[in-house]
């Protein structure tokens, strides 16, 4: 059963993914499309409604991305947000200009007349989250002005007869107090949709889609022990059962006990066929002498694929399918991996995730990525739906490039051994304190090229600092540093500096994301 999507047209927004997510939270299916789509291409997706996102351009500037006025005649309900609101106004003959009054952050919006339309049920003065320098000065003909702010004479409008709506503020961010109400008013009152989409629909839809894509071919799935690949594998297993073999690559950049854990938890829970590829030598020699983070990521992405290729023969033999070919590679790629790798429309490349921006060009497998439009918490819900055990579904994320991007400097065997020990101590103490569920993840980072002076056993040491980076997050797109109890931090630092040779300092990272990212490379 294919759902008609609510399309989010991305004008290079910071928050396009958040809009899609909030729509899904309202139990309506949503997908993001680039602003380069023509009206015809948009309508070809048979959308139930369309939301135009914010963006960095000015609607009246030369070359600014515009909306075809014909979109508003197609009978599909449209909500414009910020830039999308301005572009809609401009396309329909309204006036957009700079007032000189910019509004960034918390801003009061005042309802004009009675609260109605997409503002139904919202107090006369509401706190909204703004980020704009341009404003709509005059609504297009046929539009009713619903609200204004100090800097935006027209801050919300509606043309009920045509199902067209817009707001200058960002209803998708949690800081807009009634943001979700605005979105739900649009979806349920404006577009008259039913809240009938759940993560259960993802399972049905993806299983069908995977069957259609894969047919009777052989499939491998890169399995890491993490949530995303476990859920992707479980979906594919449900779709094509025996055609699937999971491949766990031990690249030597893993944490203590990880390889054993994959066997124990995942294979036991699902009975899937597993092939373990011992590829420590391949990765370590490819990384030798490399210090630049993006170069490391690209090398790791490439060697992952080479390791999957090298495993093909053994996989086919183990499945008694000699003479066949592995055509498909399943990856547990999520939406944030895609956006950060610069895959969002107009979005910057922050870092190349090994499974997206780090893939080699000569990839011979066709990719199967059933989770590519989802966020981690949605993936966890899908995993629970598929009956995966709580230890897998609730597991903290661990990046595919592993400890390779947590050693700041060259990756060597000695440094890996040192970091592995420090990481095991930190994780054991966090678990012992009963705080595993309080943190999203806690990278432990070795500053391999930094040394500082210490005194240990009355002697001078010149050792490395270990950084602890516990963070809290909802979806890894933004994060804050976790306020862990200081006695726990003290215990971790004390144990690491006592037990790990070569480390004489424990450091706590107190940076949010942004400006920092979660990992250091
Ligand atoms: N050691 C590995 N062996 C095989 N495939 C891997 C390995 N590490 C990562 N992958 C592949 O790369 C994908 C992305 O890795 P990533 O770490 O983001 O996801 P995950 O490990 O499945 O989940 P989590 O984010 O919870 O750790 C995985 O879903 C998996 O397909
Ligand atoms: O599979 C992955 N391949 C990668 O290359 C990669 N880089 C970062 N991460 C994980 O993604 C989330 C966001 O991390 P950053 O704030 O460091 O970008 C965090 O959960 C990181 O651990 C990765 N996962
Ligand atoms: N966040 C936005 O969409 C900004 C829209 C437009 N660039 C402005 O400054 O008004
Ligand atoms: Mg992982």
TrEMBL record:
Coiled-coil boundaries: none
E.C. code: 6.3.5.2
Annotated catalysed reactions: XMP + L-glutamine + ATP + H2O = GMP + L-glutamate + AMP + diphosphate + 2 H(+)
One example GO MF annotation: GMP synthase (glutamine-hydrolyzing) activity
Domain of life: Bacteria
Pathway membership: Purine metabolism; GMP biosynthesis; GMP from XMP (L-Gln route): step 1/1
Stretches assigned to the GMPS ATP-PPase domain: 197-395
Active site: 82, 170, 172
Positions annotated to bind ATP: 224-230
EC class: ligase
SUPFAM superfamilies cross-referenced by the UniProt entry: Adenine nucleotide alpha hydrolases-like, Class I glutamine amidotransferase-like, GMP synthetase C-terminal dimerisation domain
This protein's UniProt keywords: ATP-binding, Glutamine amidotransferase, GMP biosynthesis, Ligase, Nucleotide-binding, Purine biosynthesis
Purpose: Catalyzes the synthesis of GMP from XMP.
Assembly and oligomerization: Homodimer.
Xref: NCBIfam families: guaA_Cterm, guaA_Nterm, PRK00074.1
Name this polypeptide is given: GMP synthase [glutamine-hydrolyzing]
Native source species: Arthrobacter deserti
Phylogenetic lineage: Bacteria, Bacillati, Actinomycetota, Actinomycetes, Micrococcales
Gene symbol of the encoding locus: guaA
